[in-house]
Amino acid sequence: MAEKENMKITPENTEAEKPKKKKDGFFDSLVVAVVIALFIKTFLIQTYTIPSGSMLDTLLIGDYIIVNRLAYKFGDPERGDVMVFEYPLEPAKSFIKRVIGTPGDKISIRNKQLFINGEPYKEDYKQIKDDAYFPAELTSRDNIEEFTVPEGKYFMMGDNRDASYDGRFWGFISKDMIKGRALLIYWSLETPEYDSPWSKMPLRALRFLNPKYDRFDRVFKLIH
């Protein structure tokens, strides 16, 4: 009888085990959540912030975007796609531009008008702010003699043509440089005025708390 009493689970022992089980369960859930988040970020999507105006007005400075990393795993980029890729001259940096030329395309630019395969190409997304045209001898910004995009390469340009450092200046990218296709804007924050307290840390990091700087009309906007 005494032996059975020694084996009996007392209420005190039962209560002592509960916190440990809850703690272990929380830790396991946390580990699973972290693993899932890392998997999604590594293989499915990536987030970026737009730091410059080279893609105006498609993308604004302060847009927070989601990039689909799987977009080109089973297919090739198409003309018009907005992509994030490694900057060819400094692969550690990420650039975002639009696909203008695909392999085999014949590209030329005459006074800021893009020609593809000998035909003028309509670009509703293009922005031109400078009325001046510079000859090809001075810069490749406005005029480029016809060239053919090599096999396996892509020619990229920013939508804000007068203020984009793109393929006109550094050439082509290859498919293995592509990080993904820009999918949507999940948040957008206005840049505070230079003399505003919100332009200084720590308020700058917290400016999303001020509705003045939140561009709600851009939230969940698809990128085309």
Protein architecture, described:
The structure is a single chain. The chain is of the alpha+beta class. It has a domain at 40-100 and 154-222: Umud Fragment, subunit A. It has 3 helices and 12 strands, in the order H-H-E-E-E-E-E-E-E-E-E-H-E-E-E. The protein has helices at residues 2-7, 11-44, 167-170; strands at residues 45-49, 63-68, 82-87, 90-101, 106-110, 113-116, 119-120, 144-148, 153-157, 172-174, 178-188, 221-222. The strands form 2 sheets. Strands 1, 2, 3, 4, 9, 10, 11 and 12 form an 8-stranded antiparallel β-sheet that branches. The longest helix is centred in the N-terminal third of the chain and has 34 residues, at 11-44.
Keywords:
224 residues; alpha+beta; Umud Fragment, subunit A; 8-stranded antiparallel β-sheet; 4-stranded antiparallel β-sheet; 12 strands; disordered N terminus
SSE inventory with pairings:
Blueprint: H1 2-7, H2 11-44, E1 45-49, E2 63-68, E3 82-87, E4 90-101, E5 106-110, E6 113-116, E7 119-120, E8 144-148, E9 153-157, H3 167-170, E10 172-174, E11 178-188, E12 221-222
Antiparallel strand pairs: 1-2, 2-11, 3-4, 3-11, 4-9, 5-6, 5-8, 6-7, 9-10, 11-12
